[in-house]
């Protein structure tokens, strides 16, 4: 029955509009940082467990897509990343466009020029695939919207997330903000495995304008991709226990968001981060994405919190960089600690001050 429902929902997102039109659309879309982590997936980008993330605002991808009625039998797709043609991402983008043609019939009628830029290091533990694929999906769905009589805003929001998910699972959570859930959960009746939903309502004011500083421990490319990590997770001997824990943590985090209990928030967030990296260590083959400076920063954060009693906590993505989370009310104090102490462990003393955002934004 679940699979039948999934099929029916997928069919809802098929665009049968067959038009030819010149046009250009441009969107920004941010990265996000998961609190309850997505690690392990089934076929067709279906998550093994639900996940919740903070949508960021200052780490984003800007993407434009120009559409022209095609000149030849086959559509021409040109992709530029950081003003570079034939970037290694090009083949991935072209395969992605081909894979989603059934959801946009008009793609077969157009040549497409895609230009994309990040304002942060890609492939380094900041979710660059999340921002990139959510920006691209926003452009594609927006072009459909501009040329369609269908003006249901919720349909287009969900379709952006649905299409983004097919490119990168975590990208589904970057469409809206400041807090998004992706994956079926008994705690949220509108939840879905096919797209993310905005769960920002009924959140304690302590989480309003929550801060996130990203410490760039290593801006280089990860030694193992998230896709490989997800595959290894499905074969991990602790996978079922992990999926059960993540599902329970969704419910616990929902209560935390309502109560504003930061002690519980810190405990859940940090245990989720460390659990994911422990699962990387227990995979076969195992892999280590933390660096010595990652551990040094974590230890200093724990020591600082013990001494000051301030609600500063850390989380990690699939990389070595450390995300620090803290309320707006202690922003100046925490950022001084980062500048004076933690920046010494960052590559070239680099870090990014960010905060919660509202998701993808139309520029053109």
Kindly describe this structure.
The protein is of the alpha+beta class and 364 residues long. 37% of the residues lie in helices and 22% in strands. The chain has nine helices and 14 strands. The strands form three sheets. Strands 1, 4, 5, 6, 7, 8, 9 and 14 form an eight-stranded mixed β-sheet that branches. It has a four-stranded antiparallel β-sheet with strand order 11-12-10-13. Helix 3 crosses helix 4 and helix 6 (239-259) runs antiparallel to helix 7 (262-281). The chain is globular, with a radius of gyration of 20 Å. It starts with a helix and ends with a strand. The mean pLDDT is 93.
Keywords:
single chain; 364 residues; alpha+beta; Alpha-Beta Plaits; 8-stranded mixed sheet; 9 helices; 14 strands
User: Which radius of gyration do the C-alpha atoms yield?
Assistant: 20 Å
Helix content: 25-40%
Structural class: alpha+beta
CATH topology assignment of the largest domain: Ribosomal Protein S5, domain 2
Average residue pLDDT = 93
Approximate strand percentage: 15-25%
Number of strand segments: 14
What are the low-pLDDT stretches, counting only 5+ consecutive residues below 50?
A: none
* Biggest beta-sheet profile: 8 strands, mixed
Note the overall shape. globular
**Through-space gap between termini:** 41 Å
Number of domains: 2
Q: What is the C-level CATH assignment of the largest domain?
A: Alpha Beta
Number of helices: 9
Order of helices and strands: HEEEEEEHEHHEEEHHHHEEHEE
CATH architecture of the largest domain: 2-Layer Sandwich
